[in-house]
Design brief:
The complex is a heterodimer of chains A (116) and B (284). Chain A is an alpha+beta fold and 116 residues long. Chain A contains three helices and seven strands; from the N terminus they run αββαββαβββ. Chain B has nine helices and nine strands. In chain B, the strands form three sheets. In chain B, strands 3-4-6-5 form a four-stranded antiparallel sheet. In chain B, strands 1-2 form a two-stranded antiparallel sheet. In chain B, strands 8-9 form a two-stranded antiparallel ribbon. In chain B, strand 8 and strand 9 form a beta hairpin. Strand 7 of chain A pairs antiparallel with strand 7 of chain B, so a sheet runs across the interface.
């Protein structure tokens, strides 16, 4: 069940040009950034998520609506926007993912802290 | 406050009974088994410590666990400076961290001078630019090509990690803050002569300090890009980074804007588990 990196995958590498945030994400890219979903109906326009984002990838599109910045936002899925939002309208839909040489080994689904 | 009064002043009492028979009385010359090993009446002594309770299955988190699970790295601070006693309290938590052979191979340098922080940030940004030009082909005016990054990623996989390289580039282009305008920075220096691996011990001390700060409601952020300051002789002298010390990392501390702490989801990792019967299983 443990994951491994095959020799074919080992030859791949994320090209440095893939990291440029202004270029669109090519298909089959080796490093994919995170994505966040915001429910704009319940947003109260406090702008705390935009301020707290360390990757600077959220922006206000209206008085009470927030969206991700740019075609290929640099979201690192750190989750800082999730607890600071008071009406709790933000949700992470995609986490950072490496392929090739930097592939994560033995990682599984995400979950909140579990009380065993 | 001495140790005796500190141990006595906690609210929970545990009464322990100590058998003092072997230490009571004088040892004078001949050892007579009949009289010297005689069990005298044991003296009752009250040892007061904080009472710790094993939680039941599915019990809610206690205060320490909540501090750990709600901790978030904070990058937006208020301008208000931390009072001295609070910083000392955080450093005390770092002082009591465990270390290999109790070598305590760390040294803390607290910097609250806004002008120096500004100068150090400018220096690091400039050094990040030069380092990026030697290491990152996607950085503007870079000296190296894609073949170089391919080769370096094979030989020095950790040093040329894509997230690290991107962060260095963003720092150089001033898209990413270094210490995020924090009012106080604690630099952690590591004594290289220590037993074992002193970098791990410095990390343990740093985590103690971060968890203590978060239990007060303060915000912290680990900033390891500050190790670029080792390339500058002026700031090496300012921070006191001489042999045997080297700069390991730094922690930016301040009052956070809003309440950034809270629980989030995180990836689970596979854990290999060997139980008492020798069976192997993989837990998530």
């Amino acid at each position: 069940m443990a994951t491994y990196i095959s020799n074919k995958e080992k030859k791949l590498y994320p090209k440095m040009s893939d990291m440029d945030p202004s270029s669109p994400e090519p298909s089959g890219t080796l490093l994919s950034m995170g994505r966040v979903e915001i429910d704009n109906d319940t947003c109260n326009g406090c702008k705390l998520c935009v301020e707290v984002c360390p990757a600077n990838s959220l922006m206000m599109t209206g008085k009470t609506s927030v969206a991700m910045k740019g075609e290929n936002p640099t979201c690192i899925a750190c989750g800082d926007c999730v607890p600071i939002c008071l009406p709790k309208v933000i949700k992470i839909t995609r986490f950072q993912d490496y392929k090739g040489r930097y592939k994560h080994l033995g990682r599984n689904e995400t979950c909140a802290p579990r009380q065993f | 406050m001495d140790l005796k009064t500190m141990n006595d002043s906690s609210s929970e009492n545990i009464t322990a009974v100590l058998d003092d028979s072997l230490t009571s009385g004088q040892m004078t010359g001949a050892f007579d088994t009949k009289t010297d090993l005689k069990h005298e009446k044991p003296k009752e002594r009250k040892i007061k410590r904080s009472k710790k309770k094993i939680p039941e299955q599915g019990a809610p988190f206690n205060e320490v666990e909540r501090t750990i699970f709600e901790r978030r790295s904070v990058r937006v601070f208020k301008d208000k400076q931390l009072p001295d006693y609070l910083v000392k309290r955080i450093l005390e938590a770092g002082r009591y961290a465990p270390s290999a052979g109790n070598c305590q191979a760390w040294k803390f340098v607290v910097v609250q001078d806004k002008n120096m922080i500004q100068e150090m940030t400018e220096r690091v940004v400039k050094l990040a630019g030069w380092t990026s030009r030697f290491m990152n082909p996607a950085f503007p005016k870079s000296f190296v090509g894609n073949w170089f990054s391919r080769l370096m990623m094979k030989c020095f996989t950790s040093l040329f990690h894509p997230t690290g390289m991107t962060g260095l580039g963003q720092l150089a282009k001033k898209e990413l803050g270094l210490w995020h305008d924090a009012p106080t920075i604690i630099f952690l220096l590591v004594d290289e002569r220590s037993a074992g691996d002193p970098h791990i011990d410095v990390g343990i001390a740093g985590t103690n300090m971060v968890l203590a700060a978060h239990s007060f409601g303060l915000g912290t952020c680990w900033v390891s890009f500050s190790t670029l300051l080792e390339m500058s002789p002026k700031f090496k002298k300012y921070l006191g980074i001489d042999y045997p010390y080297r700069l390991a990392t730094s922690i930016a501390i301040g009052y956070p804007k809003g309440i950034p702490d809270g629980m989030v989801e995180r990836e689970t990792h596979e854990t290999v588990w060997y139980n008492e019967n020798g069976d192997k299983r993989i837990e998530i």
